Amino acid sequence: MEFVLNGEARSLDRGSVERALGDVDPEPVREHGVRVGGVVYPVKQAFAGATGIPRAGFTSQTARRLLVRLGFEVTGHTSPRPTLGQMPGARNGATTPAAVSDPHGWPWEGRVQTVFADYLRANGWSVTSMADTAKKATGVDVLARKGARNLGAEVKGWPSRTYSDPRRSDEVKPTQPGNQAGHWFSQAVVKGLMLLDSHPGYESLVVVPDYPRYRDLAHRTRTGRAAAGVHVVLVSEDGSTTCDPWTP
Asked: How far is CA 4 from CA 117, 194, 238, in A?
């Protein structure tokens, strides 16, 4: 299995996990565990032991998802990610990410932009420009080059339920996040179309966090976007991506 974590391309297989944990005593499982060779380990202990990545370098969610992809039984709640052809029935944000306490953490636009830029570098691209999203800078969010290829990407995050302005931080926005995400997605696609004229020959991307609402929108616009040449890249916090059908 190939994956990208913290901007670095890695590989892992089931046998490597089993060998790495073959003579390791399991720590107490507090919330989420994984069964390896008949023994249940905490998912972070198992993933760190198999990859050598420090536990601070990944989340339990990342460890669970990757171990499930290798076919291991994971205890506790996990939600498999649907493919672009298996759109969830949720509409208008019925399924939304949990609220985050860090306004500049995932899934804030600037964080999505950084994770995507790391993904590009891990796949041989040189990032030539990144707009300062924290200051709402104008221009293309990400410009990159790889050999004879050039790309421009419009990046969006996921709408928060509260305002970033400290003076209004205790207020709840009247617009539901799913509805706002629909507006953001529409704006991003329009900017993707405009990039085809402002940067002739560039590959045009819309980059958004990998949530059901954005997957649904990507699926429902796939024919028109394909004809125009605007691709959607769905990015997870751990750096893994789903594209349709753009390849890095």
From this structure: 12, 30, 7
Per the DSSP assignment, residues forming a β-bridge with 243 are 233
Supply the pLDDT for residue 75: 80
Question: For residue 77, what pLDDT band results from cuts at 50, 70 and 90?
Answer: very low
The closest of 41, 32, 9, 74 to 248, measured between CA atoms, is 9
Q: Give the bridge partners for 10, in sequence order.
A: 3
Q: How many CA atoms lie within 13 A of 188 on its CB side?
A: 31
* Terminal Cα-to-Cα distance of the chain (whole angstroms): 17
State the pLDDT confidence band at 162, using cuts at 50, 70 and 90: low
pTM: 0.60
Residue of 242, 140, 156 whose CA lies nearest to 196 = 140
- Judge whether 172 and 180 are in contact, CB under 8 Å: no
| Phi, psi at 66, each rounded to 5° | -70, -35
Read off the tokens for 115.
């994770």
User: How far is residue 25's CA from residue 213's CA, in Å, rounded to a whole number?
Assistant: 41
| Domains observed in the chain | 2-75 (no CATH), 109-243 (3.40.1350.10)
Q: Does residue 60 carry a pLDDT above 80?
A: yes
Instruction: Give the integer Cα–Cα distance in Å for 120 and 153.
Output: 11
Residues belonging to the chain: 248
Take residue 180 and report the two structure tokens written for it.
């706002």
